[in-house]
């Protein structure tokens, strides 16, 4: 373990396991992405650029191994005139975040669920190496 | 359990426990608060109002029982002229979030740690009723 | 004029008038409010609190005299279960910003316009004392 | 003029000139960039990507002709360990926004000014074709 992580660990309860921690770190990043990036003006042609920016900047956060972003282009407006653009919203955004702490890898996600009319965040899978 | 939660649970892996879930929900809110509220202009006299707004709006999020916000006023500027104000930053903000899922209650926090020069998020305590 | 403003003015072109400046300052605040506050979880009972927070924190910005916020509650969800809440969006938010520089007062606004399907920002009135 | 702009213009006071409007539109984008993008995790190697994303997404906004972003890398941390990264702040960010309405082009900017200890927004130049 990095020496710096020894310092950080002092602030966590002694009962906190690697599994707890991996879930914790991934979930922070889901909440962070939603509240940092929603509101950005977006048109279809800029989806690859914005996707890459979210994936790479947010993967800087502690213990984040990988992020996959999907922006649903069928819900975006056509940019046929000055005011005809969308802003990124929770309903347009699909996220996969993979976090890792010690020997635990967690796959987390966010997706708009029609039945709930809500961009649900969830834990898909918890793996031990 | 609410009927709506039965729908939501289908998106979670079957291995996900109440403990996993309570940590997950609390951590989302930590990440969300940081990325939603940093950047707001702030002066000392408005601390109580902004504190209450963060605590109450973010406690709407699923399975959040309570939020306590502290904004460190000694680091804020004095508002002695037009340009003399601060914006809320991670280093100024202290958070306590309490989440609950089933019989598990989790206490999470965020605090600027001088040794790391970083606003560290952490899990303080995991309790089973 | 405040001494500090003499310093700030050096960065503005010499052709910039009080009218230009009052419009400039008010427009910054419109753009700032939209991109700072959209995304916040909101339910009907918290409208007065969030309204007051936006009005008071954003009026700290230079040369902003007054802000009036209206959050359209008929578009908000009912909070009948865990996932039944809204987040603040441009379509839900109505803004009035009054800026003042020298002897010029400008009334600016933002409002969702159905014909454009867009939260339009506009200059309502420019007044000279 | 686009037909859609005839609709938008109805919401503006009749005294509003092309000069007023060009300043207005550019200033909105300055305020929007600050409050949308500050808070994003950033390390030196990701500066070109984040710069391009800000420039292209925010130029979708009405009557914005061009945006140039500079992120001052000497103030960024070195990413030598897990917690050693920066988040984008007003003091790290330099902006140039060029707006155009009718025959008026306006050059606006934002830059950290040490004398004010403030990321000042300003109007550099107003040009008539």
Structure description:
The structure is a homotetramer of 129-residue chains. Chain A is an alpha+beta fold. Helix content of chain A is 30%, strand content 33%. Chain A has three helices and six strands, in the order ααβαβββββ. A four-stranded antiparallel sheet of chain A has the order 2-4-5-6. The longest helix of chain A has 20 residues, at 18-37. The A-B interface holds A 4, 7-8, 11-13, 15-16, 19-21, 23-36, 108-109, 111, 113, 115-116, 120-126 and B 4, 7-8, 11-13, 15-16, 19-21, 23-36, 108-109, 111, 113, 115-116, 120-126.
Labels describing this entry:
homotetramer; 129 residues; alpha+beta; two-stranded antiparallel sheet; 6 strands; 30% helix
Brief rundown of the structure:
In chain A, 30% of the residues lie in helices and 33% in strands. Chain A is α+β, with helices and mostly antiparallel strands and 129 residues long.
Summarize the topology:
4 copies of one chain form a homotetramer.
Chain A (H helix, E strand, L loop, with lengths): L2 H7 L8 H20 L3 E2 L4 H12 L5 E8 L14 E2 L5 E9 L2 E10 L4 E11 L1
Antiparallel strand pairs in A: 1-3, 2-4, 4-5, 5-6
Count the DSSP helices of chain A: 3
**How is the largest sheet of chain A built, in terms of strand order?**
2-4-5-6
Percentage of β-strand residues of chain A: 25-35%
> Percent helix among the residues of chain A?
25-40%
Number of strands of chain A: 6
Unreliable runs of chain A: none
Q: What does the average pLDDT of chain A come to?
A: 96
Biggest sheet character of chain A? 4 strands, antiparallel
């Amino acid at each position: 373990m990095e020496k710096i992580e020894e310092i950080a660990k002092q602030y966590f309860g002694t009962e906190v396991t690697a599994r707890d921690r991996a879930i914790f770190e991934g979930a922070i990043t889901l909440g962070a992405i939603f509240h940092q990036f929603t509101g950005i003006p977006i048109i279809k042609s800029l989806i690859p650029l914005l996707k890459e920016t979210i994936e790479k900047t947010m993967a800087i956060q502690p213990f984040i191994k990988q992020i996959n972003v999907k922006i649903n282009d069928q819900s975006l407006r056509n940019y046929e005139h000055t005011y005809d653009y969308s802003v990124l919203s929770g309903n347009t955004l699909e996220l996969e975040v993979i976090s890792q702490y010690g020997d635990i890898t967690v796959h987390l996600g966010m997706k708009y669920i029609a039945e709930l009319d809500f961009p649900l965040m969830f834990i898909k899978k918890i793996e031990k190496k």
